[in-house]
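During data preparation, we tokenized the protein backbone, and the record follows.
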Amino acid sequence: MIVRDGGLDHPATAQLLSTHLADMHASSPPDSVYALDLSALATPDIAFFTAWEGDTLLGCGALRNLGPNDVGKVESLPSLEVRGRGWVGQLADETVPHHPTHPQPLPVREGSASAAPPASRSAPTNREGEIKSMRTDPAARGRGVAQAILDRIVTTARAAGMTRLVLETGTGPMFDAAHRLYARNGFMPCPAFGDYVATDFNRFLCRPL
């Protein structure tokens, strides 16, 4: 499995995101769906990642650098202590490139871990980052794809100097696997942030880095 920066221009990514959007709308009311399409993900404040096995797309995920207005709205989130597994994951020992305009492959091996590389001047500088567009192809589920992408996002956020990650996800059986993933990685419930509106159909999580 290889996790790469970028991939928005690949037809397989367009198909995966289209399926993702369709599933989100099938699982939640329209005003509770915040999934992003291709054009919304292709902005300078978002780093997009894809996981591959050869030419087969396994999954994707993104890290949004929250702007000053959003940062102000998440400052009141609770301070949390991460125990156990923490952020250490399955990243290889290679240096992690983290600028979304310079895609390079990052091999991922089971059981290995990597310290975060130093932040570059071009990396995001705000303290909070938001996880977006996490999706694993159904044929690749159960293989650690989401964990590998989440590890890459966490490492990129740390390298950029971020101190906290936040996310919005759904509720119901379709999102149970996502809830388990985030719980294993130290995410805890938190208030709604940014422009999100809390409803019975979404859940907000955060964790320090």
